[in-house]
From TrEMBL:
Sequence ranges assigned to domain Rhodanese in this UniProt record: 34-78
Species the sequence originates in: Parasedimentitalea marina
Name of the protein this chain belongs to: Sarcosine oxidase subunit beta
Keyword Hydrolase: no
Lineage: Bacteria, Pseudomonadati, Pseudomonadota, Alphaproteobacteria, Rhodobacterales
PROSITE patterns per UniProt: RHODANESE_3
Length: 417
């Protein structure tokens, strides 16, 4: 079924009786060429690109819950390519190019909105860091523009420009940054993969990974044994637990990152705005809700809910930066489980076990990486060679110390990235 304006008009005039399900509900087969563990954005995108670009369609995506019920539906929907270290810079640039053609590629409305992203700086040191970051972004071939205080005021007059602790001095504007509807991204990739013959198997929990003589043979699941020539992990915040089933210990800690949304308001915020102080970021959804978040909760957890002190910290931050929002009512909050690496950068690599592949450690960058991650991971699985945009996402860098990408410059502490 292909979506079009004509199809919408026809269905509207005929009682909407012609729509069909977006994907099948198949029973798992006994064996596949590739089994992907995790039916979130990265797992579904990997299956889609394996089928579309490499012709591998005998694939099962195993999801213990429902498709898109994990981190891809528990984030703040931000899309950007404003990293500055080699490795991250070219990868997120590649991902942004895929984002910009994604809706046409999938024939699915992901509500991609390149409304622009402003990173606010509050002191001279942060300004210098923004200049450096902006130059790196431009050298990569993406866009960056340094704004002075008047440039920020024209775009966001509601900010608190006179706060004594955190005065707004300017911003780095990334015009191609913006948002996309997170669950629609998962559904679009799921639909595209299913149309190419991929089996999407929900309510199928992986309970073990079979390894014989250094080679992966398949997985144990709540719906029986499934044999596979290749097994690919894409389990987001649960990566450490799933990898342990194969005897691997990953350099990853899992932490909770909370996000919040207010009641629907009239349009007030036209950009995504991030503040260098307090790590807070805010945007407005198409339904009018203000979506925002800040730091991790600073303790290890697999719980998809956070603690009250971080709620208080985030509300204090938003009141300091945008006092006009003081009367907005908070509607709900949620937590996503971040798999944090020691340098804050991800892993797309072989595991050291033949036929077993890793896609993990996305820290804060998982959603914006979705199409790039799936595209690069599919390339690795299909060819056994790293994609050109992901050559630096090696697991071995944490053993050798060579090639670390500490984007935040905070050292080897997982929760500070």
């Amino acid at each position: 079924m292909r979506f079009s304006g004509w199809r919408v008009l026809k269905e509207g005039l005929t009682g909407n009786k012609g729509w069909t399900g977006h994907w099948r509900d198949p029973e798992p087969k006994r064996e596949y060429d590739v089994v992907i563990i995790g039916g979130g954005g990265h797992g579904l995108a990997t299956a889609y690109y394996l089928a579309k670009e490499h012709g591998i369609t005998n694939i099962a995506v195993l999801e213990k819950g429902y498709l898109g019920g994990g981190n891809v539906g528990r984030n703040t929907t931000i899309v950007r390519a404003n990293y500055y270290l080699p490795g991250n810079s070219e990868f997120y640039s590649h991902s942004m190019h895929l984002w910009e053609g994604l809706e046409q590629d999938l024939n699915y409305n992901a509500m991609m909105s390149q409304r622009g992203l402003m990173m606010i700086y509050h002191n001279d040191g942060q300004r210098d860091a923004m200049v450096r970051r902006g130059n790196a972004i431009i050298n990569q071939g993406d866009d960056a523009e340094l704004l002075d205080i008047e440039g920020v005021r024209q775009r966001a007059p509601f900010l608190n420009f006179d706060d004594n602790r955190f005065p707004v001095m300017g911003a780095l504007l990334h015009r191609r940054g913006g948002t996309a509807r997170h669950d629609a991204v998962a559904w679009g990739f799921a639909r595209g993969a299913d149309m190419r013959g991929v089996d999407l198997i929900q309510n199928c929990e992986v309970t073990g990974i079979d390894v014989e003589n250094g080679k992966v043979r398949g997985v144990q699941t709540s719906r029986g044994v499934i044999r596979a020539k290749k097994v690919a992990l894409a389990a987001a915040g649960r990566s450490g637990q799933v990898a342990a089933m194969a005897g691997l210990r990953l350099p990853i800690e899992s932490h909770v990152l909370q996000a919040f949304v207010t009641e629907g308001l009239k349009p007030i915020i036209n950009h995504v705005i991030a503040f260098a102080e307090s790590h807070m970021y805010i945007s407005q959804s198409d339904k009018g809700g203000l979506v925002f978040g800040s730091y991790l909760d600073f303790y290890n957890s697999y719980a998809a809910r956070g603690n009250l002190p971080m709620v208080e910290h985030t509300m204090e931050s938003i009141m300091a930066m945008v006092p006009a929002l003081g009367k907005a009512r908070l509607l709900r909050s949620w937590g996503g489980i971040m798999d944090m690496t020691p340098d804050g950068s991800p892993i797309i690599d072989h595991s050291g076990i033949e036929g077993l592949y890793l896609n993990c450690g996305w820290c804060y960058g998982g959603f914006k990486a979705t199409p790039g991650s799936g595209n690069a991971y599919a390339h690795l699985i299909a060819t056994d060679r790293p994609h050109g945009a992901a050559t630096k996402f090696k697991l071995d860098r944490f053993r050798s110390g060579y090639g670390l990408m500490d984007e935040e410059g905070t050292g080897a502490q997982h929760n500070l990235h």
